[in-house]
Amino acid sequence: PQVTEETYFIPRNPTFETIVPCKPNQVQHMQSIISFVLIALVLFGVVWSITEKECLPGGNLFGVTVLFICSVTGGKLVGLIRLPKLPPFPPLLGMLLSGFLLRNIPVVTDAVYIDYRWSASLRNIALAVILAQAGLGLDASALKKLSMVCIRVGMGPCIIEACTVAIASHFLMGLPWIWGFILGFVLGAVSPAVVVPSMLLLQKDGYGLEQGIPTLLMAASSFDDILAITGFTTCMGIAFATGSMWYNLLRGILEVGGGMVAGVLLGFLLRYFPSKDQDNVVMKRSFLLLGLSVFAVFGSNVAGFPGSGGLCTLVLAFLASLGWRRSKVPVEDIVGIAWEVFQPLLFGLIGAEIQISELDKNTVGSLAIGLLVRVLFTFVCVLCAGFNFKEKLFIALAWLPKATVQAAIGSTALDMARTKEDKELEKYGMDVLTVAVLSILLTAPIGALVIGLTGPRLLQKPKNAAWGEDAHTECANTLSA
């Protein structure tokens, strides 16, 4: 018989075609679906035969699987929301809402159960992955060239918001001072997941390019996050230490120093081992980087120094990437794949921790006061930077969004409190997580909308046509990288 393109690529199955009369391409599509369902059923059968009740409703594996599927679906649905001339909404919003809904629908809550030990472990793995990714993504040359304006924008608002939230939460929510600063540094970080894509869209159209506003905000966001994570880890070490105040303060500083020293040693180790001439060097580097990152986060908790693990991961990934240089890109791709797997789990699990009944006006008040002071102080930080009033206002508003860092470290204090089996500490940890999630739900979509709507109105396009061409070239290079 004559071999056509269809008959060559699609094996004929007379029995199947008799039962389901379809066109060849439709037959192939249906066969793929049936094969996928069959594989899923066999996989479920194998796992069920090993774990039994864990795979059934109410079991941990069942809960994690349902949460993962719902979080991925929620992220995809939110990602489909596109408004003209506006940056896309971050998918993490859909993931958070999916976990939130699973926790707050009574019938579903009983079936989708995840033990807090499972939840804490999965969140810590996700934290290790995202910190490794952040360390790989730091640009050493950009950090060297940080101007005073960039340093002011990167440090000032974070510190001021942390102090403001600490004071507000102490008097409004009744948090101890150290827990107030933990909450302050959790909220003090801006979200690159919202700011960077929004800046790239404005940069593509040339808005604010002559003044260097997109570059300023993208560079300062990394600096802002490092400061927030460092402050958070220091306060964590103090909060969970036992002894006098001065001992706890010294212990917190030593945890930060120990984390940095361990990160430096492990980072230099990864620069030279495995060597670049080995087979499968990318896979080996990726495995060691992720393995050491997870070990640092979990090992620091086991050793009683919970504040040092995150900073160690950030430093070791950054130093390793300096040694790998351009060959770090394939490693970044593999770490990115790991993040794609754990991102839905992280945001879904965090959303599932929040209960509507625990929200109160004092929680919202502490968050609102911190955001207001942050906007005002960011405006002050750029007063003498050569920007006009509209540009200063835009920079202040663009420094609002919160998302990734809050999700990554927001639950760490709660997880640590649960290991101490102290109800009072657990309450403080839950308060921190509740405000962190609320900040994401409010500022991530509003921040993306504000940047997209105010950018074209407050920023100027370049007067020289060459600037516009450079903007398109630079943006294309950034997106391709």
From TrEMBL:
GO terms for molecular function: antiporter activity. Keywords: Membrane, Transmembrane, Transmembrane helix. The chain crosses the membrane at residues 33-50, 62-81, 93-114, 120-138, 150-172, 178-202, 223-247, 253-270, 305-322, 334-352, 364-386, 393-413, 433-453. Its main location: membrane. GO terms for biological process: proton transmembrane transport. It is a multi-pass membrane protein. One of its GO terms (cellular component) is membrane. Belongs to the monovalent cation:proton antiporter 1 (CPA1) transporter (TC 2.A.36) family. This is Cation/H+ exchanger transmembrane domain-containing protein. It comes from Oncorhynchus kisutch (Coho salmon). The gene is LOC109894195.
